[in-house]
Amino acid sequence: MNRFPVSSIADLLAVSSVDDRQLWLETAGYTGEAGLTAVLETAAMQMNGDPAQAIQLVRLVAVLAPATSPLSPRIDYLEAQYAAMQADFETAARLIERAAVQYRAQGDVMSAVRTSLGLMQVLGEQGDYQAAITVADDALILLGGMASSAERDYILAGYYRNKGYAHIHLGDPDAAITAIDAALALMPDNALEQQTALTSIRGLALHKLGSIAEAIELHVDLLAQVDKVQAPLLYARYAGNAALLYADAGMYTDSLTLLQEVQTLLSSHAGQADLYRAHTFLGDIWLSLNLYPEALQAYRQAEIGLREYRMTHQLGLTLYGMGKVLARVMESEKAVATLEEAAVLFESVGDWSYLAIALTDLSVIQ
Fold this sequence. Notes:
Number of strands: 0
Structural class: mainly alpha
Distance between the termini: 68 Å
Number of helices: 19
Mean pLDDT: 86
Largest sheet: none
Order of helices and strands: HHHHHHHHHHHHHHHHHHH
Low-confidence stretches: none
């Protein structure tokens, strides 16, 4: 059966009751498991473009499908995607783990492994990069025992990609580059979006190794390849990375120009997690420019949401920046309390690199 047409979503959702929506679908020929699968696939396709609309389709299918439906793990995974976009990472992790268990019970090992790739991403959002690497290592062993196929290689590349990103945050850029290069080697020539994403992460690793000029050049090339109208979130991700690289290179005007463009794009297209992260980035740039009131305002905007959604690692980064600002404006007592909280958060997620930096800054203030 063909995927449920995007052009019909508004008509379906305009019907008020679940019973009437079921009748609408039956009249349109979308009946039984095949019909609900078609609706669910359209919801998955729409999740990045119109998540509010997509989740309505997912929840409609969840109501209409039998309790023991083979669609249940797919429903859970799409609910997890939506929860992650709202920065509810605890719910996302729980739903992903449940989906993986259901896939294994159905004997669908490949879907279970693909689903656990999403768990790795959620753990990264929570700042638990060591746990994310453990998930990757387990999956890499399992995938390594499978025969090579386009699907297997694509999933394998995803694990290498996320492992590389985790190694960057754990302060091991050499391991990150090794993982990213392994992922790039698995990518087909026509997977341009995936190749650019991997190249961006490789640029971040180069930055950690001190090759800032090379990392900036790489990101400038990436931005030239991405259409910000057709792919605003992808463009915003690369532009945010480039903004931080510019700041580290002392190119503050270029950095601010890009970051303000990022905020505009995220305000129109992004979920809450990306918005809070953008506020932290903006605070970092204001701090680099010694514009302390502006930096504090940006960090405090980020802090409110990060606390609400329990984004532990990102909150630690925000509080660390805020503590540095408070120290520079001679509010030493507040600076110490803020940096101490940041240090506790870094320790809780195993970010020993930032923990050491925060403790060093504390020793200077005290």
